[in-house]
Each structure stands twice: as C-alpha cells, then as structure tokens.
Amino acid sequence: MQNQSPTSSTKRLVRKLLLATVGMFGFGFALVPMYDVICDITGLNGKTSGRYTVSEADITPVSDREITVQFMAQNSAGMVWEFHPNDAQVKVHPGEVKVVSYRAKNPTDLVMIGQAIPSVAPNEAAQYLKKLECFCFAEQTLKPGEEVDMAIRFFVDENIPEKITKLTLSYSLFDITDYPESAPESVQEITAR
Amino acid sequence: MSAAHDDHHHGPAKGLSRWLYTTNHKDIGSLYLWFSFAMFLLGGTFAMVIRAELFQPGLQLVEPNFFNQMTTMHGLVMVFGAVMPAFVGLANWLIPMMIGAPDMALPRMNNWSFWILPFAFLLMTSTLFMEAGAPNFGWTFYAPLSTTYAPETVTFFIFAVHIMGASSIMGSINIIATILNMRAPGMTLMKMPLFVWTWLITAYLLIAVMPVLAGVVTMMLFDIHFGTSFFNAAGGGDPVLFQHVFWFFGHPEVYIMILPAFGIVSAIIPTFARKRLFGYDSMVYATASIAFLSFIVWAHHMFTVGMPIAGELFFMYATMLIAVPTGVKVFNWVATMFRGSMTFETPMLFAIAFVVLFTMGGFTGLMLAITPADFQYHDTYFVVAHFHYVLVPGAIFSIMAATYYWLPKWTGHMYDERLGKLHFWMSFVGVNVLFFPQHFLGLAGMPRRVPDYALQFADFNWISSIGGFMFGASQLILLVVVIKCIKGGKKATSQVWEGAQGLEWTLESPAPYHTFTTPPDPKLIHNQ
Questions:
Q1: Contact, B460 vs B437, CB < 8 A?
Q2: Tens-place pLDDT, residues A99-131
Q3: Which residues in chain B are closer than 8 Å to A123, comparing Cβ atoms?
Q4: ipTM of the complex, rounded to two decimals
Q5: Which of A141, B237, B288, B424 has its CA 20 to 30 A from that of B149?
Q6: Cβ(B93)–Cβ(B406) under 8 Å?
Q7: Distance of alpha carbon B44 from its chain centroid, rounded?
C-alpha cells in the first residue's frame, strides 16, 4: 500500500472486530453467573442451594422410602478448628424434617471466623436436599477456646430419583478471619471485649 | 505526517531502527520467526532440565518446586512464545504475497503487536530470578493452585498473559482485515491458498477466545489482590468454574496451534507430489467444521471433575465428531500423494512425517475422548504423549516444513539439502524415541508433572530422555541451516520448486522488499 492510512472499509471491519473482542471479554465474565445458574438447575458442582422457605405443614412425609444421609467434615488447608458431625448418618423418609448438628471448637487463643461450604455426593442429589436452617448460611465467629454445636434443619425432597438411596453431605471449613464478608470489624470488637 | 515520508522508500532503513520502526510485513515476519526460534530454544532448555531430572528415578538435579517451575514455563513458553508467534510470522511473510497484496492492512499496528511480545516474555521469565520463583502451577494454571497457593510472582504472569493476548488479538485483526480487504482482483475466496484460509479461520478463533483468557486471568488478579471470590470456595466461588472458563479458551487454542499447520501441509504436499491438492473445497469446509466443533468440546479436558452423565456423553460424542473433518483432511493429503510424481526434499519429508505422526496423535486423542477410559488416562503420561504428538511432530514439524519450503524465497538461496535431511532424520527418530515410550508410561499409571517416579517406570523414562536429548540437540542443525542459507548458497530461482503453485512463486527470489505494489496479472491466479 502506497498510502499507509487504512481504507474506510478496513476501518469499519476493524471496529467490528474490536467490538467482538470486547464482547468476548464480557462473555468470559458472563460465564460466571451462567455457571451458577446451570449448577443450580443441574446440581453440577454438588452445591446445595440457599435457605429453603416453606411452611412445615406443607411438607408431607412419604413413608415407604428410606434414604440414608451421611455427614462428613473436613478442614481446608490452614484451618485449625476441631470440626466434626455429631451424627455420622441418619435415615430419613423423603419429606420428613430432621435436625442434625456439627460441633466446632476454636482451640487457638485468637478470635477466628470460619465459613463452611457444603457439597453433596452424588451431585444430582444436591437439588433434592432442602435446608430450612444451616450454619453454612452464615459465618461462624468463635472466641478463643469456644466450642459450639451448629444445627442443620433439612428434609429430602420426595421427588428424589428412585435410584438414589444414600447421599453424603460434606462440609469444608475455611478460615476466613482475614476476609470476613459481613462484619469486617467483628474480630477486633470481640478481641477488645 | 511521517506516512508521506515513508511513501517513496524502496529499500529497508539501515541499522537497528529498521527493525524497531519497521512496518514492512516481511521484516515483521522475520522478527516473529526469530523471536519464535529464540523462545523454542528457551522452552527447549526447560524441557532438557525436565528430561535430565527424569533420566533416572530419585531426585538428582533440581528441587521439586523448581521442577514444577520448569514444566510450567516449558508449556507457557512453547505455546505462547514458540508455536503461536511462528505461525503469526509465517502469516506476515506469506499472506500478502499469496493474495497479491502490497502489505498487511494495518502496518503500524503490526509493528506494535510484535514489539509488545518480547516484553511479555521478559516479564514472565524474569520471575525465574526472583525469590518467590517462576509460576509453578502448570501451564493450565488451575485455581486455587494459581490463586490461593500461587507464588507472589503470579502477578507478573497475569500481566504477561494480558500482553500476549493483546498481541495475538491485534495480529488477528490485522490478518482478517488483510485477507478480507486486500486480495488482488481475481483472487476470490475460493481461489485463496489453504494457508490463507486456515489462517482466516484461526484469526476468528483467536478473536473469540483470547479475550476469554484475558478475562480468566483478570478474575485471578481480582481474587488474589482485591478480595473477590470467583474461584475461592470459602467466599462462595468455585474452583471448577476456573476449569470451565479456562478450557473454553483452551480447546479452541489447541486448534489455533494446528489449523495453520494444515494450511502449510496442504501447500507442500501438492508441490512435491506434482499434483493439485485433492478436495480443496472439502478442506475449507473441514477446517471451518473443526473450528466450530472446537467451541463445544471443552469439558473433555475435565471428565473427572464430576458431571452429569448426559454432559459426559455429549462432550464425548462431540469430541469424537471432530475425527470426521480431520479424517477428511488426512484422506485428502494421502489422495494428493497417491500416484503423484513424488520427490522427498526436506519440506516434503517434514510434511509426510506430519501426516503420519499427527494422525497418531489424533488417534490417542480419540482414546482419551472415551469418557470411561479417560478416567484411567487422566493426568498420566498418556496425555503428555498425546498432546506432544500433535504439537511437536504436528505443529512444530509443519513450521519446520514451512521454513525449509519458503526459505529460498525469503533469502534468495537454496538451503543445504544434506544438512536439512540430517535435521529431519535426527528430529524424526528423536521425537519418536522421546514421546512413544510415554504412551506406555501413561498406560502403566505414571502421573504427569512429577519430578520422581516409581522404579518400574525407570526404563521407559531412560529411553524417553535419550530421545529428548537427541531431539533437542538436532534443533541446533536448523539454526546452522538457516544462518548458512542467509549467508549464501546456490541462487534460488523464482519458481524454486518445480511443482510450486501460487502468487509468491511468481516473485523473484529473494522476494523484493516491496511486492505487489501494483496488483498481479489476474491470469496468474489459478483455480485451486
């Protein structure tokens, strides 16, 4: 090309291609909420959904099936709390509301904040495990040496596929003392008291 | 305006400024190719460290953490520093000459897209000399290894990837604009050489996925420094999300590294078989189909993360579907050679080795696509053998074939055929001794990315390392051949190869600094 300034049709094309680039950059970020939605529908990553609100009178137990729900606990790397379920497993009828609990103890002499993240195996069972109440819905702040029982109130949806007779609910406990989401002041406040 | 000043240049400027300020597609092509060769040797050095450590069981030479830095840097340098810039360099040199254009459509941006690249790699390799060390989380940089547990230097890596991405995107925009707007009169789309076609499709792939890569490293940056939780489970994120977004980029990326290779081989085989390419139209459609399918198969890299059975089946069948258009291509290359008057100069040897060995890599890919079998092969040396077969005797052999094939056009001299053949046979034997035993290692259960291994893997690792040293050393022959060819040798004719077709062979050798300042005679443009 003798004259180095691009022709107008080239400029138009470049504008379109730049727009496509910006669009695909945005699409990369759009994948994040898309993934959450797909996981919510399919239970892809074994995550249970948030608090399930229903009046307990509307839940009717289906007595002819029995499902074993097992409980597990693990600490993520660097988390020092003692953390375990109080019951290894319970048998429930679909639709029957159960309460179980986990025990956590902060053995250090520092105020710490923990966050439990649930995971259900098999993954497809995740959407049928409905939690009315769970300690994983909030951060747990424990004073030095403090020990607590933390409850889960849940039921198994009666629509759970026939082939699933046993499911495992596992919690990973993370130390989020340095990154509390709801109350960034709480550690200093409690330490001061 | 300085453009007015440039108008009446007929030769290159002198000295270093020629290379710094150049907007000439041939100069920029050469810069890309030399840069790529330097990175090939650097990434190769890292590979030699890996093979030396794995020569015998036990920890002999390097610490495990440094070993991890070597595997990571080897992958990153080879993918983003050697293979991709080599193809962009070939595109710069060849596309304008193949379609009868005087230069790339956006020469100034072309200069910029090359010159930011050395800085990206300077940024990334400088981490080797820092206290925290280089990235050690594998070239796929899965979170949380690359976020929560990453060395502090990960930020250098993130910005390096941003710069590489910007360079690739600018290069792609330039290539698309050149191909769509600057073809000589009479050069219709379906008369374009296949190298131009495959690059056009590759450029669209790059524009579609490089921004997603930029997005994923940006999310990492925010997770590491600004307290977000895209991939941090404690804050409600999901590490598996990283793998989905990464492989949404990563799978098209592997076709970005092979589609231009298909174009090169489709140019070389007809020349030395002295026949027209069999099934040109089907080659174009097969390339487009492969590009489309590349977007819907990403989860076959992550069958073991846990997916509904329907998802695993979908990704398995979609992956296997890719074998159809790829099979069409292999069939066409073989049919082109069938009953041709073949001669076996170095470019043809590399091209034939490409067809055979790439097909083998494709077959192991099919094995890996079988979901239940993949649960055994996942993260073993079988995967390493598979992707090295498609990338080394695949992508890299095609780049070498292209170098030998067009070198006389670039330098005006014939290369040393005897040394070229030596380079080919050393590489061919070396690459197979290097990677073939790794299939067996993987099937026997040796995991990837380990500095030490159980004793039963010792023999195959020993063989593999010897092949690795042989392959590594023989690449220095290529350097000698290229330098000798630049310095002198038998004068090359315009045609260079008896059976060569296409506009670039109507130009004298070496190709003048400015070519096709007036469009070529439409009679020179043949049907494919």
A1: yes
A2: 999 999 999 999 999 989 888 888 888 888 888
A3: 306, 308
A4: 0.90
A5: A141
A6: yes
A7: 14
